[in-house]
Write a structure and sequence with these properties.
The protein is mostly helical. The chain has helices at about 10-15, 35-50, 55-65, 80-90, 105-120, 135-150, 155-185, 190-205, 210, 215-220, 230-259. The longest helix has about 30 residues, at about 155-185.
Protein backbone atom coordinates (compact mmCIF):
# COMPACT_ATOMS: atom_id res chain seq x y z
CA UNK A 1 0.00 0.00 0.00
CA UNK A 2 1.46 3.32 -1.10
CA UNK A 3 0.08 6.58 0.25
CA UNK A 4 0.91 9.82 -1.54
CA UNK A 5 1.32 12.94 0.54
CA UNK A 6 -0.17 16.28 -0.42
CA UNK A 7 -3.57 15.01 -1.53
CA UNK A 8 -5.52 17.55 0.49
CA UNK A 9 -6.09 21.19 -0.29
CA UNK A 10 -2.60 22.67 -0.78
CA UNK A 11 -3.16 25.96 1.06
CA UNK A 12 -5.01 24.36 3.96
CA UNK A 13 -2.46 21.55 4.31
CA UNK A 14 0.52 23.91 4.34
CA UNK A 15 -1.18 26.22 6.83
CA UNK A 16 -1.84 23.29 9.17
CA UNK A 17 1.68 21.92 8.80
CA UNK A 18 3.27 25.26 9.60
CA UNK A 19 0.49 26.32 12.02
CA UNK A 20 -0.25 29.56 10.22
CA UNK A 21 -4.05 29.17 10.38
CA UNK A 22 -6.42 30.16 13.14
CA UNK A 23 -5.49 28.87 16.61
CA UNK A 24 -7.47 25.81 17.70
CA UNK A 25 -9.18 27.54 20.60
CA UNK A 26 -11.11 30.01 18.44
CA UNK A 27 -12.31 27.45 15.89
CA UNK A 28 -15.96 26.53 16.11
CA UNK A 29 -16.62 22.88 16.89
CA UNK A 30 -19.47 20.63 17.89
CA UNK A 31 -17.83 19.94 21.24
CA UNK A 32 -14.93 21.56 23.12
CA UNK A 33 -11.77 19.63 23.90
CA UNK A 34 -10.56 18.75 20.40
CA UNK A 35 -7.47 20.17 18.74
CA UNK A 36 -5.40 19.47 15.64
CA UNK A 37 -2.61 18.05 17.80
CA UNK A 38 -4.98 15.71 19.67
CA UNK A 39 -6.42 14.45 16.38
CA UNK A 40 -2.98 13.89 14.87
CA UNK A 41 -1.75 12.05 17.99
CA UNK A 42 -4.81 9.79 17.90
CA UNK A 43 -4.29 9.11 14.20
CA UNK A 44 -0.65 8.16 14.82
CA UNK A 45 -1.81 5.77 17.56
CA UNK A 46 -4.24 4.13 15.12
CA UNK A 47 -1.56 3.74 12.43
CA UNK A 48 0.99 2.40 14.94
CA UNK A 49 -1.35 -0.22 16.37
CA UNK A 50 -3.48 -1.18 13.35
CA UNK A 51 -1.58 -0.02 10.27
CA UNK A 52 -2.21 2.62 7.66
CA UNK A 53 -4.94 0.55 6.01
CA UNK A 54 -7.07 0.90 9.16
CA UNK A 55 -6.76 4.68 9.29
CA UNK A 56 -10.00 6.60 8.84
CA UNK A 57 -11.56 9.70 10.29
CA UNK A 58 -14.15 7.47 11.97
CA UNK A 59 -11.49 5.32 13.62
CA UNK A 60 -9.61 8.38 14.85
CA UNK A 61 -12.83 9.88 16.17
CA UNK A 62 -13.54 6.70 18.14
CA UNK A 63 -10.18 7.03 19.90
CA UNK A 64 -11.14 10.54 20.93
CA UNK A 65 -14.69 9.70 21.91
CA UNK A 66 -16.07 11.71 19.01
CA UNK A 67 -17.71 11.04 15.69
CA UNK A 68 -15.61 11.18 12.56
CA UNK A 69 -17.61 14.20 11.40
CA UNK A 70 -16.53 16.16 14.47
CA UNK A 71 -12.92 16.09 13.27
CA UNK A 72 -13.52 17.89 9.99
CA UNK A 73 -13.73 21.28 11.70
CA UNK A 74 -10.07 20.87 12.59
CA UNK A 75 -8.66 18.68 9.81
CA UNK A 76 -10.52 18.97 6.48
CA UNK A 77 -9.84 15.44 5.17
CA UNK A 78 -7.75 12.30 5.48
CA UNK A 79 -5.33 13.79 2.94
CA UNK A 80 -4.34 16.61 5.28
CA UNK A 81 -4.33 14.21 8.22
CA UNK A 82 -1.70 11.94 6.63
CA UNK A 83 0.54 14.96 5.98
CA UNK A 84 0.21 16.09 9.59
CA UNK A 85 0.83 12.59 10.97
CA UNK A 86 3.94 12.08 8.88
CA UNK A 87 5.50 15.40 9.78
CA UNK A 88 4.58 15.25 13.46
CA UNK A 89 6.05 11.79 14.04
CA UNK A 90 9.35 12.89 12.46
CA UNK A 91 9.80 15.16 15.48
CA UNK A 92 10.90 12.06 17.42
CA UNK A 93 14.21 12.05 15.57
CA UNK A 94 17.17 13.86 17.17
CA UNK A 95 17.61 17.36 15.81
CA UNK A 96 21.39 17.20 16.19
CA UNK A 97 24.11 14.56 16.42
CA UNK A 98 27.48 14.70 18.16
CA UNK A 99 30.07 15.91 15.65
CA UNK A 100 33.03 15.83 18.03
CA UNK A 101 34.24 12.56 16.51
CA UNK A 102 33.77 13.73 12.94
CA UNK A 103 31.10 13.18 10.33
CA UNK A 104 31.43 9.38 10.01
CA UNK A 105 30.30 8.34 13.53
CA UNK A 106 27.63 11.04 13.34
CA UNK A 107 26.22 9.56 10.12
CA UNK A 108 26.25 6.10 11.72
CA UNK A 109 24.30 7.46 14.68
CA UNK A 110 21.84 9.19 12.33
CA UNK A 111 21.28 6.00 10.33
CA UNK A 112 20.71 3.88 13.44
CA UNK A 113 18.22 6.39 14.86
CA UNK A 114 16.29 6.59 11.57
CA UNK A 115 16.19 2.80 11.18
CA UNK A 116 14.82 2.38 14.72
CA UNK A 117 12.30 5.17 14.05
CA UNK A 118 10.96 3.46 10.93
CA UNK A 119 10.57 0.17 12.80
CA UNK A 120 8.61 1.92 15.58
CA UNK A 121 6.32 3.49 13.00
CA UNK A 122 6.32 1.16 9.95
CA UNK A 123 3.35 2.97 8.40
CA UNK A 124 5.70 5.88 7.67
CA UNK A 125 7.37 3.67 5.05
CA UNK A 126 4.08 3.58 3.13
CA UNK A 127 4.11 7.35 2.62
CA UNK A 128 5.71 7.77 -0.79
CA UNK A 129 8.84 9.88 -1.17
CA UNK A 130 7.72 10.88 -4.66
CA UNK A 131 5.89 13.88 -3.19
CA UNK A 132 7.34 15.28 0.03
CA UNK A 133 5.11 16.63 2.77
CA UNK A 134 7.12 19.89 3.00
CA UNK A 135 6.53 20.24 6.73
CA UNK A 136 8.89 21.70 9.36
CA UNK A 137 9.99 18.36 10.81
CA UNK A 138 10.65 16.87 7.39
CA UNK A 139 12.94 19.81 6.67
CA UNK A 140 14.53 19.47 10.12
CA UNK A 141 15.39 15.83 9.39
CA UNK A 142 16.99 16.79 6.08
CA UNK A 143 18.76 19.77 7.62
CA UNK A 144 20.26 17.58 10.35
CA UNK A 145 21.75 15.11 7.88
CA UNK A 146 23.15 17.86 5.66
CA UNK A 147 24.68 19.50 8.73
CA UNK A 148 26.56 16.27 9.47
CA UNK A 149 27.67 15.71 5.89
CA UNK A 150 28.78 19.26 5.33
CA UNK A 151 31.81 18.30 7.39
CA UNK A 152 32.97 16.16 4.47
CA UNK A 153 33.68 19.27 2.44
CA UNK A 154 31.84 17.88 -0.57
CA UNK A 155 30.10 20.50 -2.76
CA UNK A 156 26.27 20.78 -2.72
CA UNK A 157 25.70 18.91 -6.00
CA UNK A 158 27.62 15.83 -4.81
CA UNK A 159 26.27 16.10 -1.29
CA UNK A 160 22.67 15.95 -2.55
CA UNK A 161 23.46 12.58 -4.10
CA UNK A 162 24.99 11.33 -0.84
CA UNK A 163 21.93 12.45 1.14
CA UNK A 164 19.59 10.63 -1.25
CA UNK A 165 21.76 7.49 -1.19
CA UNK A 166 21.89 7.29 2.61
CA UNK A 167 18.18 8.01 2.97
CA UNK A 168 17.21 5.32 0.46
CA UNK A 169 19.61 2.81 2.03
CA UNK A 170 18.14 3.18 5.52
CA UNK A 171 14.58 3.23 4.24
CA UNK A 172 15.16 0.07 2.20
CA UNK A 173 16.57 -1.84 5.17
CA UNK A 174 13.67 -0.75 7.36
CA UNK A 175 11.12 -1.77 4.72
CA UNK A 176 12.56 -5.29 4.50
CA UNK A 177 12.37 -5.80 8.27
CA UNK A 178 8.91 -4.27 8.45
CA UNK A 179 7.57 -6.49 5.68
CA UNK A 180 9.14 -9.60 7.25
CA UNK A 181 7.32 -8.80 10.49
CA UNK A 182 4.03 -8.37 8.67
CA UNK A 183 4.34 -11.51 6.53
CA UNK A 184 3.33 -14.18 9.10
CA UNK A 185 0.06 -12.47 10.07
CA UNK A 186 -0.72 -11.45 6.49
CA UNK A 187 -0.14 -14.94 5.06
CA UNK A 188 -0.87 -17.21 8.02
CA UNK A 189 2.53 -18.89 7.56
CA UNK A 190 5.56 -18.29 9.75
CA UNK A 191 8.95 -17.51 8.20
CA UNK A 192 10.33 -20.80 9.50
CA UNK A 193 7.49 -22.80 7.92
CA UNK A 194 7.77 -20.91 4.65
CA UNK A 195 11.54 -21.46 4.30
CA UNK A 196 11.36 -25.09 5.41
CA UNK A 197 8.72 -25.94 2.78
CA UNK A 198 10.41 -24.16 -0.09
CA UNK A 199 14.02 -25.00 0.62
CA UNK A 200 13.22 -28.71 0.59
CA UNK A 201 11.27 -28.33 -2.66
CA UNK A 202 14.12 -26.36 -4.23
CA UNK A 203 16.40 -29.35 -3.79
CA UNK A 204 13.77 -31.49 -5.53
CA UNK A 205 12.93 -29.23 -8.49
CA UNK A 206 16.45 -27.86 -9.06
CA UNK A 207 18.91 -30.77 -8.79
CA UNK A 208 22.52 -29.69 -9.17
CA UNK A 209 21.68 -26.22 -7.87
CA UNK A 210 25.24 -25.60 -6.62
CA UNK A 211 26.79 -26.31 -10.02
CA UNK A 212 24.18 -24.24 -11.86
CA UNK A 213 24.55 -21.23 -9.55
CA UNK A 214 28.08 -21.48 -8.14
CA UNK A 215 28.38 -17.82 -7.18
CA UNK A 216 25.13 -17.84 -5.19
CA UNK A 217 26.27 -21.02 -3.46
CA UNK A 218 29.68 -19.51 -2.68
CA UNK A 219 28.37 -16.23 -1.28
CA UNK A 220 25.96 -18.09 1.02
CA UNK A 221 28.54 -20.67 2.11
CA UNK A 222 29.76 -18.91 5.28
CA UNK A 223 26.39 -18.11 6.83
CA UNK A 224 26.80 -19.44 10.36
CA UNK A 225 23.56 -19.65 12.33
CA UNK A 226 24.11 -17.95 15.70
CA UNK A 227 22.25 -19.10 18.81
CA UNK A 228 19.56 -16.45 18.83
CA UNK A 229 15.78 -16.16 18.76
CA UNK A 230 15.97 -13.26 16.33
CA UNK A 231 14.10 -14.01 13.09
CA UNK A 232 16.43 -15.02 10.27
CA UNK A 233 15.63 -12.17 7.90
CA UNK A 234 15.87 -9.54 10.63
CA UNK A 235 19.27 -10.88 11.61
CA UNK A 236 20.44 -10.82 8.02
CA UNK A 237 19.20 -7.28 7.52
CA UNK A 238 21.02 -6.20 10.69
CA UNK A 239 24.25 -7.70 9.38
CA UNK A 240 23.90 -6.28 5.88
CA UNK A 241 22.89 -2.89 7.27
CA UNK A 242 26.14 -2.64 9.25
CA UNK A 243 28.26 -3.86 6.34
CA UNK A 244 26.45 -1.80 3.73
CA UNK A 245 26.61 1.39 5.76
CA UNK A 246 30.34 0.92 6.34
CA UNK A 247 30.89 0.43 2.60
CA UNK A 248 28.85 3.56 1.80
CA UNK A 249 30.84 5.59 4.31
CA UNK A 250 34.09 4.22 2.85
CA UNK A 251 32.87 5.42 -0.53
CA UNK A 252 32.12 8.89 0.82
CA UNK A 253 35.60 9.05 2.37
CA UNK A 254 37.13 8.04 -0.96
CA UNK A 255 35.14 10.78 -2.71
CA UNK A 256 36.38 13.31 -0.15
CA UNK A 257 40.01 12.25 -0.61
CA UNK A 258 39.71 12.40 -4.39
CA UNK A 259 38.64 16.01 -4.13
Amino acid sequence: MVVFAGQGDARRSMALLWRTGEPDEVRPGPKPGLSVDAIVDAAIAVADSEGMAALSMRKVGERLGRTGMALYTYVPSKGELVDLMYDRVLAELPAEHDLSGGWRPAVTSWAEHVLAFYLRHPWVLQVSQARPVLGPNEFAMLDGLVRILRGTGLPPQRLRGVVALLSDFVRGAARTVSESRQAPSATGVSDEEWWRARSSLLEEVAPGFASRYPMVTWVESEDDEPATDEPYLERRVGETFAVGLAVLLDGIEAAVKSG
